[in-house]
Amino acid sequence: MNDKRIIQLLDDQDFYDRFERIKHVMSDSGLDSMLIGGNANLFYLTGRVFAGYVFISTSTTGPLYFVRRPNDLAGDNIFFIRKPEDIPGELSAAGIDAGRHIGLETDTTSYTMCRRLMKAFGMSEAGNADAVLRTVRSVKTGREIELIAESGIKQEGVYREIPSLYRSGMTDIDLQIEIEYLSRQRGCLGQFRISGDSMELFMGNILAGDNADTPTPYDFAMGGGGQHPSLPVGANGTVITDGMSVMVDCNGNFNGYMTDMTRVFSTSEVSQLALEAHDCSREICRKLAEAGQPGVPARMLYEQALEIVRSHGLEAFFMGHRQHAGFIGHGVGIEINEMPVIAPRSRDVLEVGNVIALEPKFVIPGTGAVGIENTYVVCGAGPMRCLTNAPEEIIRL
């Protein structure tokens, strides 16, 4: 049998690590069981995406898989179903009690589907399985960290080749297409998974010159006008010329787990103010990597970054100019915006295994966006380890 058709693709240790933590957080949340059907969570739970559900109970040793498509998956504890209403009957026939408190993905599943599942299980109220899985997924297993590091190495290789892609007279769109083409050639999957129904982006954000100062409706660190009002973010056709910065924040998904990395390029020297802001960003990343240890509240990292910015007199340009982002970092993994969030009112506390993208950026009118973004992993002792190690200076195209 082709192993690719086996439903559970996680190795035994990784499988055990994930499900033990899930059951622990479920118990703390008062849930007896959960029914999971969102693609990102299915990938986390099995290593693949399929149409169907994973059922997890605190009273069983492992998950059950309820599959609609594809119909050729194999493995233990698989039940093929036509519709989700079949699940309670299958559980009953297997002698499994779902319990009274069942969690559904109430944040990300449609209202209609939640109502269908609640009716099928005779529930008047559902627990929030999304909250459980956000908490669990914020702490990566050893295998997840390996996969993120692998993506980081491949993304770094792409970024090192960006200067060779530039040709005089290019627009930001032209350069973005070349970067995307190279990324796909190097194995990038292309998909940019983002949590939240109001968050959209293609394969990344390329910002040339003052387009970086264009506000956007999306909750990204940087904006840009985009090419069309239907996707108002990112590159807008600006011709790359001397004196402007070109910020590249592109897709790092090479295996289902993403790294997030930003670097800045230019065809000539940029203003002294832009250089100072860029150096400030590097300083922030360096010092926050040292401070980012287990037990540190995420908001303290934000406060430390703001102190550094103020010491350089750059607060008017920090995380935007006309419109400012309210965070400087976020968890990253299967989706680009996971926990913890590095923001002034964040309640998150750093844990061993958190993978965090730090992106202290600046927008300098007349030049554009400057600053870096790196992906780090919180270690058991010492500073966070950087997983994106491309050159950090402003790079000449």
Briefly characterize the structure:
This protein is an alpha+beta fold and 397 residues long. 31% of the residues lie in helices and 17% in strands.
Describe the structure.
The chain has 397 residues and is α+β, with helices and mostly antiparallel strands. Helices cover 31% and strands 17% of the residues. It has ten helices and 17 strands. It has helices at residues 12-28, 39-46, 87-93, 111-120, 129-137, 142-160, 162-165, 172-185, 272-291, 298-311, and strands at residues 33-36, 51-57, 64-69, 78-80, 102-104, 127-128, 204-208, 246-250, 261-266, 329-331, 338-342, 355-358, 361-364, 368-371, 374-377, 385-386, 395-396. The protein has a six-stranded mixed sheet with strand order 4-3-2-1-5-6. Helix 1 (12-28) crosses helix 5 and helix 9 packs antiparallel against helix 10. The radius of gyration is 22 Å and the shape is elongated. The protein starts with 11 loop residues before the first helix and ends with a strand.
Q: What layout of secondary structure does this protein have?
A:
Elements: H1 12-28, E1 33-36, H2 39-46, E2 51-57, E3 64-69, E4 78-80, H3 87-93, E5 102-104, H4 111-120, E6 127-128, H5 129-137, H6 142-160, H7 162-165, H8 172-185, E7 204-208, E8 246-250, E9 261-266, H9 272-291, H10 298-311, E10 329-331, E11 338-342, E12 355-358, E13 361-364, E14 368-371, E15 374-377, E16 385-386, E17 395-396
Parallel strand pairs: 1-5, 3-4, 5-6, 9-17
Antiparallel strand pairs: 1-2, 2-3, 7-8, 8-9, 10-11, 10-12, 12-15, 13-14, 15-16
